[in-house]
Amino acid sequence: MEQEIERRTKTREPIKLKVRFRTLSGSNAVEGSGETINFSSHGILVESPLHQRPPVGSRLEAIVEWPIRLNGTTLLELIALGTVQRAGTDGFAVRFEKHKIRSPKNRRTL
Description:
This protein is mainly β. The protein contains no helices and 6 strands. The protein has strands at about 20-25, 30-40, 45, 60-65, 75-90, 90-100. A 6-stranded antiparallel beta barrel has the order 1-2-3-6-5-4. Strand 5 and strand 6 (about 90-100) form a beta hairpin. It is globular, with a radius of gyration of 14 Å.
């Protein structure tokens, strides 16, 4: 039996957080929501309904509800721009091009 070779350079952490996303390119715009399956500094794996999965190669904006509050009170979110690298039965993977943490009140784009 052949063992699959791990090609990722960054460790993935099994973190479950709510995420909203929308495609930024292509003629078939996709918007949806789901939950992260795992996280790294370079990307996320997202579980979402099959009909909401963006096509491989799509540019995507993802907004993840951050689990820690600023000063214990202010909600935070991670906003990331990236490209869908793969899609499968477990969800779809996004490789980050850029990302930042912000408060939802501060909705400026990246």
